[in-house]
Amino acid sequence: MSELISVLLPVYNGQKYLRPAVESILAQSYDNFELIVCDDCSTDDSLAILKNYSERDGRVKVFENATQQGLFGNYNKCWERAQGQLIKPFAQDDILYPDFLMAGQKILLERQQVKLVLTARNLIDADDRVIETVSPLPGPREYAGNDLITWSLIFLTNKLGEPVSGIFRRADLSYGYDTRYFHYGDLELWFRLLVDGQLFFNTDVLCAFRRHEGGTTSANHRYLFDLVDALRISRQYYSFLEQIGESKEHLYKRLIEYSALTVNHLTIESGGDESLVRRRGPEPGPNQGVHTDDDFAELLYLALSQITPLIAELDNAKRGITELTDLRRQMNSRSHQVVGWLMSALRGARH
Of 51, 148, 246, 321, which has the fewest CB atoms closer than 10 Å, so is most exposed? Predict the structure, then answer.
């Protein structure tokens, strides 16, 4: 049975990589798909590029948002217009290799217990060079969804895969993306699919995720939106951590340490100039409407930037205390040995 696949493509000022992204969809070996594109009030030539494709290929369906929705809101706009039984999220700067749709729909057709299919992917740079190949699971096989949710929460990051790497059945979700999220909306959607189902991980490299300075992922990292979402998703799915005995106190400590290390890394990347690390959200942009332009955001950044050296100092102090304790034990042991030797010598002298 050939099921219709709806490929969701939210677009905002994506002209730089939009053509190769769209062409990678049109080059799929599985041709029963529709490409649902929603333009989120772009100010570049994105809309003209998209309309040109829709005029040439009826499977490309282009819509314009009257007001800007942001990334996950725009995904939902695509979702509302989708007609397919299967949903394939996509991004304006990524690439699908020719057999992605064919492989994904085949697995979902044969394995009804599987709620989500993810594949290995290449990380590529702005010039299409492969930076590395990412295959986080040793498949190809099925994995228990609950285990993967817990695993992801322990690492406080999305190790499973970006939207480009996934495909699933529309019927397995009651709604689309949670628009409260800035950065981990894709991971939260994976979690909802996996709460009551299995993941099939395909080790074939069937897509490419592009890393570049102008990408949403890079922007979210600079603006610390990923840290806000790490807190939010940990709270929302805390019950999975609770099952393995992690207290909320320990979770919050991990979140603070993770945030501090992230801020420290950003500061290092900026050459030590903290003023170069942006703490305010982009206007306009994929997260328009998010108010982060305030003194509290800057105060939080400065506080986090001080935690990393404090953690290092505490670790050094702990190591010092441990070394002193070990030395004291050794001295005590040697003292006992010396006293024992003296007592034996004295007894020998008396005799």
Answer: 321
User: What domain range includes position 87?
Assistant: 5-216
Q: How far is CA 316 from the centre of its chain?
A: 32
* Model pLDDT, residue 177: 97
CA 179 to each of CA 65, 94, 210, 302, 335: distance values in angstroms, whole numbers, following the listed order = 16, 22, 23, 28, 67
| Amino acid making up residue 8 | L
- 5 with 33: CB under 8 angstroms? yes
Tokens linked to 21 = 């992204």
Confidence category of residue 289, pLDDT binned at 50, 70, 90: very low
Does the residue 224 lie in any domain?
Answer: no
DSSP 251-286: HHHHHHHHHHHHHHHHHHHTTT-GGGS--S--SSST
Taking the C-alpha atoms of residue 24 and residue 8, their distance in angstroms, rounded to an integer, is: 14
Amino acid letter, 330: Q
Q: The tokens of 195 are what?
A: 């709460």
Eight-state DSSP code of residue 283: S
C-alpha to C-alpha distance for 272 and 270, rounded to whole angstroms: 6
Residue located via tokens 């696949």: 5
The CATH number given to whatever domain includes residue 61 is 3.90.550.10
Task: Count CB-CB contacts under 10 A for residue 151.
Answer: 15
Residue 125 falls within a domain, yes or no? Answer: yes
DSSP E strands in 150-238: the ranges are: 166-169, 198-210
Q: Which positions ≥6 away from 276 have C-beta within 8 Å?
A: 270
If one counts the domains in the chain, the total is 1
DSSP 181: -
Please give the structure tokens belonging to residue 209: 């995720």
Query: 128-168 pLDDT, tens per residue?
Result: 999 999 999 997 999 999 999 999 999 988 889 999 999 99
| Residue the block writes with tokens 């959607």 | 189
211: which DSSP letter? -
Give which of 115, 181, 105, 180 is closest to 142, Cα–Cα: 115
